[in-house]
Specification:
The chain is an alpha+beta fold and 473 residues long. Helix content is 27%, strand content 23%. The chain binds flavin-adenine dinucleotide. Flavin-adenine dinucleotide binds next to strand 3, helix 5 and strand 10.
Length: 473
């Protein structure tokens, strides 16, 4: 560490209480602080700091603003863009904000829970499941509260209760000027900006979320053999266009997997995740999916279980068949048969037609059909820019090993998004939490960009947030 960097370390160490700790490289805590789900999202920071209180975090931000030092804040570390929650400067890790407090109303009923942004969603589900309660959050294990929530948050419960941000009652945020502020819907601009505007307005420490009664659910994963993709495509289209049961949710991930256990090079299969919010699956809801042919070596795991058990059973780390990751998306006003068919064609035919020039270990395309009411559960917010009509995410994801292929990965992800977008031209929208780093702000925030810029300038006069990565208004 240079003497200047050592000065910053000392200045922060002197300014904080015993509840906060700093870690130099070569410590286990430092490694944990800079670790990301996809290794390509990590950088070597000067040192890491785990703030233990909002006051300490405020002191840290004031020092970073005064010294103009690069920094980053990490919650669950699932950002798929390098530099968004990683830095070569000071790494802030929200690991100590892990409180889970059930709030009782006058009748002693729990209607909300206050949680720290250092938690992962599955940690919250583990705590709430024994209480027969739930919140609207991430769908697979390991995803952090901080990033998913502040970007929007599609959930297994979105068809019933909207996005994760639609279920926030209150934020506590450390503003860029070091003020610790409680933000509710009475705070027009910050309330608008924090719901979807990610890390533009400071660091959120705790949030209060609506809770819902949660009993046993039915669901899990089935690996559908590529030979049955025609039937899968028909079933997905049928579900997307005709399902009326808001308790039912699906996440079909068409993929090419080059895994060590797989004898065929580039096996085609779909990770089909099915969720029904009820202990018993009503007749007919997923019948077409039940009839699909499964991959023999990968047993189907669909059953009645707790919500926490369901989420923790999803093997999201199988999607990490290389250290490098790219995630992008498009949002479509309706999921047409042509979208699903094109996804199937890309996986089965178009990639093969490239004649071997496909250096990716895991290639995945997913459609996310929710109920058309999905944006009606919340008031105007940074994301989505419009709430009067549905837009459904289509996710595009590759993972690979060799950094020499980075540019090719980003280019091909973008080309695939364009190809799918051309099926129903007219909407350029992208979901901010599945967006390549150079995605234009307008594609994610539409007409909200100007207002969001004004809010950022109002609350970040020192331009502290320009010293960290992410989409900047
Ligand atoms: C395997 C996988 C599954 C996913 N599943 C879903 C899903 O079901 N639904 C969905 O909507 N999205 C999903 N996503 C996308 C996910 O929402 C984003 O990757 C999100 O950024 C992850 O949040 P995090 O806290 O884990 O990430 P981090 O890398 O910690 O943070 C992401 C961004 O948020 C900022 N940030 C984090 N904490 C704070 C804070 N406390 N205050 C201010 N800014 C903060 C960071 O600076 C960074 O810019 C998934 C992604 C992956 C890789």
């Amino acid at each position: 560490m240079t003497s200047q960097n050592n000065d910053i370390y000392q200045e922060i160490a002197n300014a904080v209480s015993d509840e906060t700790e700093l870690f130099r490289p070569d410590t286990q805590q430092y490694e944990e602080a800079i670790r990301h789900w996809g290794k390509s999202s990590s950088e070597y920071a000067l040192f890491s700091v785990e703030p233990g209180t909002a006051e300490d975090l405020a002191a840290i931000l004031c020092i970073l603003a005064a010294k103009r030092v690069q920094w980053a804040v990490k919650s669950g570390g699932h950002a798929t863009n390098r530099g968004f929650s990683s830095t070569s400067g000071v790494q802030i890790f929200m690991n100590r904000f892990k409180q889970i407090t059930l709030n009782k109303d006058a009748n002693k009923d729990v209607k909300t829970v206050t949680v720290g942004t250092g938690l992962t969603w599955d940690e919250i589900y583990d705590e709430l499941t024994p209480q027969n309660l739930n919140v609207v959050g991430g769908r697979v294990p390991g995803v952090g509260v901080g990033g998913l929530l502040l970007g929007g948050g599609y959930s297994w419960l979105t068809s019933q209760y909207g996005l994760a941000i639609d279920n926030v009652k209150q934020f506590e945020v450390v503003l860029p000027n070091g003020q610790i502020k409680t933000v509710t819907e009475a705070d027009n601009d910050l309330w608008f900006g924090l719901r979807g505007g990610l890390n533009n307005f400071g660091i959120v420490t705790v949030v209060t979320l609506a809770t819902y009664p949660q009993g046993q659910i039915w669901g899990g994963i089935k690996y559908v053999d590529g030979q049955d993709f025609d039937a899968l495509t028909a079933a997905v289209t049928n579900f997307a266009q005709n399902n009326q049961d808001r308790r039912a949710s699906i996440l079909p991930v068409y993929s090419i997997l080059r895994a060590p256990w797989e004898t065929r090079q580039g096996a085609m299969l779909a990770n089909l995740m099915l969720f029904y919010d009820g202990a018993e699956l009503p007749a007919g809801v997923f019948q077409e999916f039940m009839d699909l042919k499964e991959v023999p070596v990968l047993p189907t795991d669909l059953k009645t279980r707790t919500f926490a058990n369901f989420v923790s059973s999803i093997p999201a780390n199988n999607w990490l068949q290389g250290d490098r990751v790219a995630f992008h998306s498009l949002l479509v006003p309706e999921i047409r048969r042509e979208h699903v068919q094109e996804i199937q064609n890309i996986i089965t035919v178009r990639i093969a037609a490239l004649g071997g020039r496909w250096p990716f270990q895991f290639t995945a395309l997913e459609v996310q059909p929710f109920d058309a009411s999905l944006y009606t559960y919340g008031a105007d917010s940074a994301f989505p820019p419009k709430r009067d009509s549905p837009l459904y995410p289509i996710g595009i994801y590759w993972s690979w090993k060799d950094s020499a292929e980075d540019q090719y990965a980003w280019d091909t992800v973008r080309r695939v998004a364009d190809r799918l977008r051309n099926i129903l031209p007219g909407d350029e929208s992208v979901y901010v939490n599945y967006a390549l780093a150079d995605t234009p702000l307008e594609a994610m925030y539409g007409d909200n960009v100007e207002r969001l810029h004004d809010i950022r300038v109002q609350y970040d006069s020192s331009n502290l947030m320009s010293l960290t990565g992410g989409f900047r208004f």
